[in-house]
Amino acid sequence: MSNDKGLQDAHVKIGAKQTIKVVELGQATEVYVAEDADQRLVSKIVSLCSKHNVKITYVDTMQHLGKACGIEVGAAMAAIIKQ
């Protein structure tokens, strides 16, 4: 997330359910995971991403990830969708 606009311009799914779904469907190219998210969710998405060969990038807090996604609340995870 090096650009100033964060994840707002990309095709993004935000939230655990949406992220897990797109990874399972093989539509995700990269997943961002907040390090302070629920560990059960984190371990589930980590194993799914390794199974589907999806890159994971860790973000320090849910608040930062939410802000990068352009939402007012924290986000546990977000996925970039294949175009």
From TrEMBL:
<feature type="domain" description="Ribosomal protein eL8/eL30/eS12/Gadd45">
    <location>
        <begin position="10"/>
        <end position="82"/>
    </location>
</feature>
<dbReference type="InterPro" id="IPR029064">
    <property type="entry name" value="Ribosomal_eL30-like_sf"/>
</dbReference>
<dbReference type="Pfam" id="PF01248">
    <property type="entry name" value="Ribosomal_L7Ae"/>
</dbReference>
<dbReference type="InterPro" id="IPR004038">
    <property type="entry name" value="Ribosomal_eL8/eL30/eS12/Gad45"/>
</dbReference>
<protein>
    <submittedName>
        <fullName>Firmicutes ribosomal L7Ae family protein</fullName>
    </submittedName>
</protein>
